[in-house]
């Protein structure tokens, strides 16, 4: 997200927040009620529009239009598949009629669908107006092609909605589809193959196909939100969501490109629970003030600190040029802090923009480089990603191992399997390459060693008092050790060539 986009989105959010604060002071309550009704539609419209506007350009013809359309299609597909609640869920949706759970109000659903289709049609129609062209990076396809794509999305969603009744396998099939797309987009040879196929379909040169041709805006975060919804639906834990609420949750524009990964049940509370009581005006003012504060902090982190550190931060080019151990450490430290300020800055901006619209997105960073051990680091770094893997992989896997393994597997083996597989998956989430796998293995080894060390230390120190000064020194040394372990791990992360990473490790330690 560029600074221009941030300024435009922030200006729109401030305008809405100011109007909402004024409306909340209206003695008749009519303006406040109007603002409350307009807010969810504004959030939906802004999010769908941003989906196309923020999409990266691509040399494949019209792909920067089709990828956002594909996001909307997948979102509608998953919503249709989760219409029928599993046995543990009996709550009625806000758009449901008296026909019972899983029966949406057709009028509300059609209105949402028409609003979304209207936005997409308007974006496609800009190709015919040179003065307005184009919201997408390149000229959109013909309006007829866009209309046919929308009709296909609706038709498939209707079929899936009818299939959803009593078919638990449908959730698993959609999870498999999302994972297959994820692997195809994260594995360079597969992505290059997808590019070649798309180029062939559009009549472009296949010989120029590259993995960089297919850049799907926010797909990693969107896929995880959709998988979360499908898994919770299969377990009967998914709250009832209307189509408008569901689409807004999945593609909410502040968190579209860089997270955080919110949960549907938490997000929908913000969407529905806008305060309309006597403190509504104060709440709106607080949202605007806090939102603007977080945006300013995020902009400073990203554009002042992170972008400055990027000038000397470690990268594949300068890694091969440094000759001294001292400069190797300078570049590594610069990268470690550049990555933190860049990512946490974007998170601050996303949280701030969300607050302008009354949505309190979850925190994603909590001073991770000041944590005294690796477990606490991962409870403070990209917290929503770590929590997602903990909820949908680590916990289910370790529970299954304890049940299936019985007495044959001791606790340390179960922890080793759970931590190793989790960290490898987190690494491969960034890209299916050896360097990301090694980065995940590096953290898996560190987490397991810390787990075993903690168990051993507790047994040795049981009943032994520790002086305050010794505890402070131990804490400071632990923070320094944890930070350097994490910083050294970034070598695997930033350098795609494993041989170059090994050479840099040698340089860092005087080799």
Task: Write structural notes for this entry.
This protein is mostly helical and 511 residues long. The chain has two domains: 54-272, no CATH class; 370-508, no CATH class. The protein is 69% helix and 0% strand. It has 19 helices and no strands. α1 (3-24) packs antiparallel against α11 (280-309) and α13 crosses α18 (468-494). The longest helix is centred in the middle third of the chain and has 32 residues, at 325-356. It is globular, with a radius of gyration of 25 Å.
The helicity comes to: 55-70%
Number of domains: 2
Q: Helix and strand succession? A: HHHHHHHHHHHHHHHHHHH
Low-confidence stretches: 89-101
Keywords:
511 residues, mainly alpha, 2 domains, globular
Write the layout of secondary structure elements.
Layout: H1 3-24, H2 30-53, H3 63-81, H4 106-125, H5 143-163, H6 169-186, H7 188-201, H8 219-234, H9 243-251, H10 264-272, H11 280-309, H12 316-319, H13 325-356, H14 374-378, H15 383-405, H16 411-430, H17 434-461, H18 468-494, H19 498-508
Helix pairs in contact: 1-2, 1-11, 2-4, 2-9, 3-5, 3-8, 3-9, 4-5, 6-7, 6-8, 9-10, 11-13, 13-18, 15-16, 16-17, 17-18
Give the structure's gist in a few sentences:
69% of the residues lie in helices and 0% in strands. It is an all-alpha fold and 511 residues long. The chain folds into two domains: 54-272, no CATH class; 370-508, no CATH class.
């Amino acid at each position: 997200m560029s600074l221009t986009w941030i300024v435009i989105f922030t200006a729109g959010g401030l305008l809405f927040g100011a109007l909402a604060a004024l409306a909340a002071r209206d003695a008749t309550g009519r303006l406040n009620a109007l603002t409350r009704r307009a807010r969810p539609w504004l959030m939906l419209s802004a999010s769908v529009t941003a989906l196309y506007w923020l999409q990266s350009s691509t040399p494949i013809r019209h792909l920067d239009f089709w990828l956002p359309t594909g996001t909307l299609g997948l979102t509608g597909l998953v919503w249709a598949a989760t219409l029928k609640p599993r046995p543990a869920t009996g709550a009625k949706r806000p758009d449901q009629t008296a026909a019972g759970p899983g029966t949406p109000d057709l009028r509300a659903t059609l209105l949402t669908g028409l609003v979304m289709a209207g936005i997409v049609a308007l974006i496609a129609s800009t190709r015919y107006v040179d003065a307005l062209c184009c919201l997408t990076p390149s000229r959109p396809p013909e309006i007829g092609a866009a209309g046919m794509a929308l009709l296909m999305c609706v038709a498939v969603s209707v079929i899936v909605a009818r299939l959803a009744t009593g078919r638990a396998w449908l959730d698993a099939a959609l999870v498999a589809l999302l994972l297959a797309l994820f692997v195809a987009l994260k594995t360079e040879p597969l992505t290059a193959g997808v590019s070649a196929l798309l180029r062939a379909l559009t009549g472009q040169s296949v010989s120029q196909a590259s993995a960089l041709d297919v850049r799907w805006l926010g797909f990693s975060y969107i896929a995880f939100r959709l998988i979360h919804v499908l898994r919770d639906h299969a377990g009967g834990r998914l709250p009832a969501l209307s189509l408008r609420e569901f689409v807004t949750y999945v593609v909410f524009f502040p968190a579209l490109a860089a997270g955080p990964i919110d949960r549907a049940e938490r997000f929908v509370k913000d969407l529905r629970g806008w305060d309309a009581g006597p403190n509504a005006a104060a709440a709106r003012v607080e949202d605007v003030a806090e939102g603007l504060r977080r945006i300013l902090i995020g902009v400073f982190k990203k554009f002042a600190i992170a972008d400055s550190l990027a000038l000397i931060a470690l990268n594949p080019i300068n890694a091969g040029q440094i000759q001294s151990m001292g400069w190797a450490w300078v570049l590594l430290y610069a990268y470690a802090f550049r990555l933190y300020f860049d990512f946490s800055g974007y998170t601050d901006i996303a949280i701030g923009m969300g607050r302008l619209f009354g949505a309190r997105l979850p925190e994603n960073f909590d001073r991770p480089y000041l944590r005294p051990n690796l477990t606490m680091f991962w409870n403070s770094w990209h917290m929503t990603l770590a929590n997602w893997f903990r909820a949908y992989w680590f916990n289910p896997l370790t529970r299954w191992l304890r049940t299936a393994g019985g007495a044959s597997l001791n606790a340390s083996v179960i922890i080793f399997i759970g931590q190793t597989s989790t960290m490898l998956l987190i690494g491969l989430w960034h890209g299916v390459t050896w360097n990301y796998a090694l980065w995940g293995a590096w953290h898996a080894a560190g987490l397991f060693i810390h787990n075993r060390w903690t168990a051993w230390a507790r047994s040795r120190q049981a009943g032994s008092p520790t002086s305050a000064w010794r505890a402070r020194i131990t804490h400071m040394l632990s923070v320094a050790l944890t930070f350097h372990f994490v910083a050294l791990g970034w070598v695997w992360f930033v350098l795609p060539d494993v041989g170059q990473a090994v050479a840099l490790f040698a340089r860092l330690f005087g080799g």
